[in-house]
Design goal:
Order of helices and strands: HHEHHEHEHEHEHEHEEHHHEEHEEH
Distance between the termini: 69 Å
Number of domains: 2
Strand content: 15-25%
Number of strands: 12
Strand order of the largest sheet: 2-8-7-6-5-3-4
CATH architecture of the largest domain: 3-Layer(aba) Sandwich
Helix content: 25-40%
Structural class: alpha/beta
Radius of gyration: 21 Å
């Protein structure tokens, strides 16, 4: 009698270290037994003000949603070319910048290749490469979370294909300096600089893309533009990498709605930048206020979040305490950040609520 062979899962998937996303506001509210609007969601670096009015107008005006979106993303890419100053042919949109990270791994990695990640940093850089057959080489940052560039250089091997950097770095909030990037680019490996929080920092390393053909710049509309729910990321790629990405991407990877709101958000960027400046001011206020608690050490940040060390091993205790007050911040379980919490910069009212809870923490 013929037997049916059971379906199997690849070992790299079976043993994958999953990147755990944050819970939705609705799921948190259900757990706590409160209305969703009662939850101060300060754990995912979302923009508390949401998108500009032009986005709502664009979504309400959508037609032809029964037709597939433009696979060439022409209008959205043209708008991004005007915004960034980069040539349109070097720009590609993704279903969030997470999709673009996967596509980069797809076009560059052969089994046994290596990817360098300075840690701590965004967990996706650690979780995704093994799914494509790559080994992740972690390089610890210095005590102040600055890059250890000599250690990165020493970690480069003949199998190194990608080096992931974030500027500002999530969750530590510090920047990659031009001098550091130049030195790392000179390794000749493809360097991915994730500028997800670029607008909050007001600084970019994009100019290096004019002189180096091994630099990728990634950005997103999730943070500054308040569009996390529509999943819009984009990248500025070297021509050879861009051509490869176009060959392998899903034809209709960015929806009609997402492409439309790219144009709308960029038309209304004066409104958006006003909100960005509000968040930057609130960030400075939050850091200053957090310094008054003897059990906390906040770190300077160029993003829309603040990383805090919680002393005496009480980070998880404080996280649980705030959660019961329906204030949700980001906790960590890894060896690098077990004693830290990351707090998204919210509205002034959310900051006041957080500080009142911290006042009562004993």
């Amino acid at each position: 009698m013929e037997t049916t062979r059971p379906a199997t899962v690849r070992a790299s998937v079976e043993h994958a270290v999953e990147y755990l996303p944050v819970e939705s506001r609705e799921a948190i509210a259900e757990r706590l037994g409160v209305p969703p609007e009662a939850v101060a969601k300060l754990d995912a670096n979302e923009n508390p003000y949401g998108p500009p009015p032009a986005v709502a107008t664009a979504l309400a005006s959508l037609r032809d949603v029964h037709l597939y979106p433009d696979p060439d993303q022409r209008r959205a890419r043209a708008a991004l070319a005007e915004y960034t100053g980069a040539p349109m042919e070097r720009i590609l949109l993704g279903n969030g910048s997470d999709e673009l990270i996967d596509l980069l791994l797809l076009v560059t990695i052969e089994p046994g290749d290596e990817v360098i990640v300075p840690v701590p940093s965004f967990g996706v850089y650690l979780s995704r490469p093994p799914l494509f057959g790559a080994r992740v080489v972690v390089v610890p940052r210095r005590d102040d979370f600055d890059l250890d560039v000599p250690a990165i250089e020493r970690a480069v091997s003949p199998r190194t294909r990608l080096i992931f950097l974030a500027s500002p770095n999530n969750p530590t909030g510090n920047m990659v300096t031009p001098e550091q990037l130049r030195q790392i680019l000179q390794t000749g490996r493809l360097v991915v600089v994730d500028e997800a929080y670029y607008e909050f920092a007001g600084q970019t390393l994009q100019a290096f893309a004019e002189d180096f053909d091994n630099l990728v710049i990634l950005r997103t509309f999730s943070k500054w533009a308040g569009l996390a729910g529509l999943r819009i990321g984009y990248g500025i790629f070297p021509p050879t990498i861009a051509a490869a990405l176009w060959r392998v991407k899903q034809p209709f990877n960015v929806s009609v709605a997402a492409q439309a709101v790219v144009e709308a958000a960029l038309r209304d960027r004066e409104w958006l930048m006003h909100r960005v400046m509000q968040i930057r001011r609130e960030r400075d206020r939050l850091i200053e206020a957090l310094r008054r608690y003897p059990y906390l050490t906040p770190f300077p940040s160029h993003g829309n979040f603040v990383l805090c060390r919680v002393h005496h091993g009480r980070a998880h205790e404080l996280h649980a305490y705030l959660f019961q007050a329906a204030i949700v911040v980001r906790r960590y379980d890894d060896d690098w950040l077990r004693d830290y919490l990351r707090i998204t910069v919210g509205t002034p009212e959310q900051t006041d609520r957080l500080l009142a809870a911290l006042d009562a923490f004993r």
